[in-house]
Specification:
single chain; 201 residues; eleven-stranded antiparallel beta sheet; 11 strands; globular
């Protein structure tokens, strides 16, 4: 009986790593940080705290720039130059000056938003899951031309087993062309910084 229960629970965990990851970010992970490397050459240190505070310290290509999103004001405070403390811009999250090359917004940059976008595609298509020892590999495709975020028809996602934190994500268009690749390194969950880092003004 206990063996059957263990096998069943193992199957559920294996079959639904995306759902488990969403659960972790909704219920357990209050704040986290990591270094993000993007295929367009962007490298940054990212900090997140509920209910939606975001800080990005740019490493490449504009080293020293800092962006902080405050969900209470729905504004982004930008310090373009590390050595000029007094120069701080106050911008809307949809300002084209601070969107990524793919149109991503800082107020929609958290991991839960990413996972829910992948889930939206999965729910209208299919998902293949592989247990690769230390991680879960997932290939998610929309069905019948269904796309998310305008032109994303497929995601490849790698989740770290145990934490269910993404290690890698790639997005593709309907023709199979790569849109973007992102890797996550030096991940820290619920430890390592205080909310004071979200104040640069």
């Amino acid at each position: 009986m206990f063996l059957l229960l263990f096998l069943f629970m193992s199957y559920v965990s294996f079959a639904n790593p995306l759902d488990e990851a969403i659960h972790r970010f909704e219920k357990e992970y209050k704040y986290y940080s990591y270094i993000m490397k993007v295929s367009d050459g962007t490298v940054l240190k990212y900090f997140y705290a509920k209910p939606g505070y975001v800080r990005m310290d740019i490493i490449e290509p504009f080293k020293g720039a800092t962006l902080v999103y405050d969900p209470n004001t729905n504004k982004v405070f930008v310090r373009p130059f590390k050595n000029i403390k007094s120069l701080i811009l106050k911008l809307s999250p949809d300002n084209p000056m601070i969107k990524s090359s793919k149109g991503h917004r800082i107020d929609e940059s958290d991991i839960l938003t990413l996972l829910n976008t992948v889930k939206e595609l999965r729910d209208k298509g299919e998902m293949i899951v592989e247990d690769r020892g230390s991680c879960y590999y997932m290939d998610v495709k929309g069905g019948r031309g269904f796309m998310v975020r305008g032109n994303i028809a497929r995601f490849v996602l790698i989740l770290e087993k145990g934490s269910f934190f993404p290690k890698y994500v790639a997005s593709y268009d309907k023709d199979g062309g790569l849109i973007e690749e992102v890797s996550f390194e030096d991940i820290s969950i619920n430890v390592g910084f205080s909310k004071g880092i979200f104040m640069i003004r």
